[in-house]
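#random but structural
TW: two for the price of one
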Amino acid sequence: MLVARRRILLPLLIGLLGAGLAGALAARGQAPPPKTITFRMVRSSGVAAAKCLPNAQANVTDTSLGPVERLTVAVSGLPANTDFDLFVIQVPNAPFGLSWYQGDIVAGASGARTQNFVGRFNRETFIVAPGVAPAPVVHPRAAFPDASSNPATAPVHTFHLGLWFNSPADAAKAGCGNTVTPFNGTHNAGVQALSTRNFGLRTGPLRSLAP
């Protein structure tokens, strides 16, 4: 009987302590940091100027799992059965700054898809290069060939997201132009389709999530 009571009382006590801590923080004006944030990606500046993809958007959920985050990107309004490339970027518009390739999102038959990415997607997301070092040249004959070394840089935070057409031909077919960009694995992608340009240059949405 005593064991049964302990099983009931222990979770209750933990819950009360958690509620008390949250209440104390709120009373001090220090609400506990959110573990999940949600935000939207909108048509890129170039796509909006070209008046293509009128219904394109993405709803993003960024959830802290402790040592990593889960970024869930739900796109819609894109051309059907078309491959896109997601990047974490420094600023949402050209020249985009430092950028990190996350992976692909393939729009389905309805032009929609939900894709999950796991990594570091919070206010500590950054790129750093303490010095110049040799880099592998994997695509020497690409439209944008690989560099053979990196530029040195102090830590640079990257709080924005951008989504690019994987193919210039797909972008042209959608009426968005056939400009070639380096934003895919072989550095011959199409134009940016979606971005977080609805946020400030220095206040990209990933900045809102505490680690």
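TW: number two ↓
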Amino acid sequence: MSAGPTKSASRERSRGEVVLRIVLPIAVLALGILAWDAVVRHKDIPPYVLPGPLLVFKTLVSDWAVLSESLLVTLTTTLEGFLLAAAGGVGLAVLFNQSRLIEYSLYPYAVILQVTPVVAIAPLLLIYLPQPAAVLACAWIVAFFPVLANTTLGLNSVDHNLADLFRLYGASRWQVLRRLKLPAALPNMLGGLKIAGGLSLIGAVVAEIAAGAAGAGSGLAYRIAESGYRLNIPRMFAALVLLSVAGVVIFFVLSLFSYLMLRRWHESAIAPDR
């Protein structure tokens, strides 16, 4: 008798949480935009110092042809860098899990690659590589390590009792990897991919800014640098808004993918009864 009302109340709470998670950020964003507009109007700040939100929106519409083309270039590089990082990170993590010799030999160099600032690497890559390849390499470098580290952690954190049970029943190393280790490491792997999605965009932006300083480039970050040189601050803000929106979309797409992969069995994706 009581199961029906309990489930109904749980569904109502879940809907309420979804509404709050959507409405509250939108309300905060709206308040921030209103405060921004009020400050610009009240202080009479000139557009070349701080443009108002309405001017930024008008610039976004009027310069859409240029900005959208640059956005497509940046997103293409980001996607390519992310896919390379995902494939390379997961593949190398599997090799590390299967061979301690390979892990001990290569993992320190992956750490060195991660801790070296991409701002310092980008100008060097632009010297030795064509501009598109250098930008892609920067996007890959910053996105690669989170996938590698998280997947390696997940594969090495599998319950040893379960692994021993698989071996007791005569499972091969491939069967243990495919049926036990990879599914168990999936939450860590997806967490690394969510981090890598944003970092690949950051790497592409940093490399495009460096390319712009060298007199080359066509991505959205190049447009930001170009607008700064020309004191076209409204276009700079419009390009920055597009970059922010692109980063948010990447994060939510990867979060949705993670939820769809984990929703039926992992605690992080199952709605708690609160």
